[in-house]
Amino acid sequence: MFNDCTQLRQPIHVNDVAQCVLNSLKLEESCGQIYEIGGPAVYTQLELYEIMMNQMNRQIQLKYFDNKLSKKIAELIPNWRFFSLDELIKDDLDLVVDPKAKKINDLYINPISFPVASEQLLAPYAVRIPRTHEYDES
What we know:
Blueprint (H helix, E strand, L loop, with lengths): L7 E2 L4 H13 L16 E2 H11 L11 H10 L8 H7 L22 H9 L16
Antiparallel strand pairs: 1-2
């Protein structure tokens, strides 16, 4: 990790985004409007990692790397796909819907929550914990 993971995120499922696009094309009142779309809840980055690790029955193990040093390295290696200065700067920002903006509910969408969506996505990667059965001999 390149920061303290306190930055806010408002994750949204790709199907909800697609439905927003379709609804915006169908609704006359959406013509010329700008919408900010996000999921129904706001989380810190750390909360998102914790939710995902819990769903996969794994312990969270984050490794921290100095933010300033990582930005200096990113300046020396421009346009590397998985490590760029733009991504490091974006990671330091809160990415949430502006309270004054037109939102997803203005497009008549009730978005799925992050825990529900990620549980479906991550289920195949969950560590299976063997169940122990205790039998009553009486």
